[in-house]
Design goal:
Blueprint lengths: L1 E4 L5 H15 L3 E5 L7 E3 L28 H14 L4 H6 L8 H13 E5 L16 E8 L2 E8 L10 H17 L3 E5 L20 H10 L5 E5 L2 E3 L4 H5 L2 E5 L4 E3 L3 H8 L5 H5 L1 H8 L4 E3 L2 H11 L26 H4 L10 H5 L9 E3 L7 E8 L2 E8 L10 H16 L4 E7 L6 H5 L2 H14 L4 E10 L2 H4 L9 E4 L4 E3 L3 H14 L4 H19 L1 H6 L5 E2 L5 H11 L17
Parallel strand pairs: 1-2, 6-7, 7-8, 8-10, 9-11, 10-12, 15-16, 16-17, 17-18, 17-19, 18-20
Antiparallel strand pairs: 2-3, 4-5, 5-6, 13-14, 14-15
Helix pairs in contact: 5-6, 14-16, 18-19
């Protein structure tokens, strides 16, 4: 730095000015007197103290980086967080192993690993409360699960039995609303006894209270996958989250869900019943249909969700993820040998599926509910497909009310998340009888037909063997806008089977024949004539179906058709929505 001062200044004055400026600016200073060409005084910048910050010249007192570290203030915060992470009272944590379940923080580690938990919201909820309710018993945040970003929530059963109150409800609602913005999947790890009755005025009926859960579930429905895993008894309000979720997994002998606890049931109805008998995993997997899968333990539950999510996109705007193609587990050459010649003889449709889909990709949902219909995800040439297949091994593949409802919901979910559908038809149609009428066969059958009608994803229908009555409608036959209806040589399409048809049309004429042998011969002739009329070749001749294919080439046929039609776009009529629920 160069400075020029007035003529007449002494050398001492010039030196003093140079020294003062050098210390102030932290740089060398040259002082010139009057018009002199050479400096009268030169002063270098003073050396900083040995322990001073190298970058903080000019008298800066900031400590060196090596001396920086957590302050007492930060250490206090870290200690507070560590205390929150311990959860509720130790006596409740000690009971968890006897119940076969993990402490919620350990559960989160199991799901997301050391680096998968991205962040948590609301750790300090109810921090100032005199009671010990860390995070208000509910953990929410974001994580990476098997390469996918997800929102999540998890109840802490050590905090007032995982019950819900105002601050936890607020966290839950924020998580749901953020999922609507990000369009990322939501994972619910449920273990809740319901709402805290003694605090209900703070969250029950409020505009932004617990009731808003279900509103948000409804808004998220079909937008992003919602997957729920139950780890304990979820009662009353807590039980609606699993049934609102798209997919629900319960854990054997651990999970339960019910509209009221056994004690409340006894008070209201006098019925004395255990929690598992009231709403355990097998009740909902086999009787209500509310559970899609039952896991053996916590680790198995995670494995099931790991498999499930590979078939699902992040949201309704995306296509489901593809995988590398894999050959079927068994050769397609064996398909025709599996299908009996006799239309009334049973066989296992999964033996056909094993020869169509990529090995290891078959993932069945609700296997113990409505067994007459199979609903499963799988891959064909690496492409995810949703399979709706009649199961002749159970009640001849007739469609009962629970099977129709199961299929309708599966079709609806698959369509919401852009998963193409494969229908494998082998059914005598919807079941008849007084009991199925009481069980709403018409109402639930309507739902299946409606779902099939409204699905806009690519659909392929294969007439494997018999497709009688309205069964061909429910299974996306020619009238239901499939991209293709193809038949195997064993296929038949008819209003009803030959025996029923002959009885309905010719009963009087046959009864008029006195000779039993003659009557039997005539009945056989009529049955054969009828069978020729409904044979798949006749249907192909009349162009009712698109093609008959050799069973051994079915896999290749489906590969090509799903590939060709994967970009097809369909539109529903311009309306608010249908009236079928």
């Amino acid at each position: 730095m160069k400075v020029r001062i007035n003529e007449g200044a002494s050398e001492e004055e010039a030196s003093a000015i140079a020294a003062a400026l050098a210390e102030h600016v932290g740089d060398e200073v040259e002082v010139y007197v009057g018009q002199a060409d050479d400096p009268t005084a030169v002063e270098a910048a003073p050396e900083p103290p040995a322990d001073a910050d190298a970058g903080g010249g000019g008298g800066d007192s900031t400590p060196a980086d090596d001396d920086l570290g957590p302050t007492e203030r930060e250490e206090d915060l870290i200690a507070e967080i560590e205390e929150i992470l311990k959860g509720g009272p130790e006596k409740y944590k000690e009971r968890l192993p006897d119940q076969g379940k993990l402490f919620v923080r350990d559960r989160i580690d199991l799901w997301f690993g050391d680096d998968g938990l991205l962040f948590e919201d609301g750790k300090f909820a109810e921090f100032d409360n005199e009671d010990q309710i860390p995070a208000d018993g509910l953990i929410t945040g974001a994580a990476e699960f098997e390469g996918r970003d997800v929102h999540f929530m998890a109840n802490d059963f050590t905090v007032k039995a995982g019950s819900m109150a105002a601050k936890g409800v607020e966290k839950f609602l924020r998580m749901q609303e953020r999922a609507l913005k990000t369009a990322k999947p939501v994972l619910y790890l449920m273990d809740s006894s319901g709402g805290r009755i003694d605090q209900q005025t703070g969250f029950f009926a409020n505009r932004e209270g617990i009731g808003k859960y279900y509103y948000n579930h409804s808004m998220l429905s079909g937008r992003v996958p919602q997957i729920c895993v139950l780890y304990g008894p979820c009662i009353a309000g807590a039980a609606y989250t699993p049934v609102f979720a798209d997919f629900t997994i319960m854990v054997e002998e651990m999970s339960a869900m019910a509209i009221a606890s056994p004690r409340m049931v006894q008070m209201v109805t006098g019925e004395d019943i255990s929690m598992q008998d009231l709403g355990g995993a097998h009740v909902h997997a086999e009787e209500s249909g509310s559970a899609d899968l039952v896991a053996e333990d916590e680790e198995h539950a995670r494995e099931l969700v790991d498999q499930l999510i590979t078939y699902l996109p992040n949201n309704s705007d995306e296509k489901p993820p593809r995988a590398d193609p894999v050959a079927p587990a068994k050769s397609p050459e064996g398909i025709d040998g599996i299908i009996p010649q006799e239309p009334n003889r049973g066989y296992d449709m999964t033996d056909v599926i094993d020869r169509i889909v990529d090995e290891g990709s078959y993932f069945e949902l609700r296997p113990d509910y409505g067994k007459e219909i199979i609903t499963a995800y799988a891959r064909i040439d690496g492409r995810p497909v949703g399979i709706v297949a009649n199961q002749p091994a159970h009640r001849a593949g007739a469609i009962f009310p629970d099977a129709a409802e199961k299929a309708a919901e599966f079709i609806w979910k698959s369509d919401a998340f852009n998963i193409p559908l494969l229908y494998l038809a082998d059914t005598p149609g919807f079941m008849a009888g007084s009991q199925v009428e009481k069980d709403a066969i018409l109402e639930k059958g309507k739902k299946m037909i409606y779902a099939t009608s409204s699905a806009t994803v690519p659909k392929q229908c294969v007439v494997v063997r018999k497709a009688y009555g309205a069964g061909i409608y429910a299974m996306s036959g020619p009238a239901y806008d499939p991209e293709s209806t193809i038949g195997l040589p064993s296929g038949e399409i008819a209003i009803m089977g030959p025996e029923a048809a002959i009885n309905a049309v010719y009963a009087n004429k046959l009864n008029a024949i006195d000779d039993p042998d003659e009557r039997a011969e005539r009945e056989a002739e009529l049955r054969e004539e009828y069978r020729e009329d409904i044979d798949i070749h006749r249907m192909a001749s009349e162009v009712v179906i698109d093609e008959i294919v050799p069973p051994s080439s079915l896999r290749t046929e489906l590969e090509n058709r799903f590939r060709f039609y994967e970009t097809v776009e369909k539109e529903l009529p311009d309306k608010k929505h249908g009236t079928v629920l």
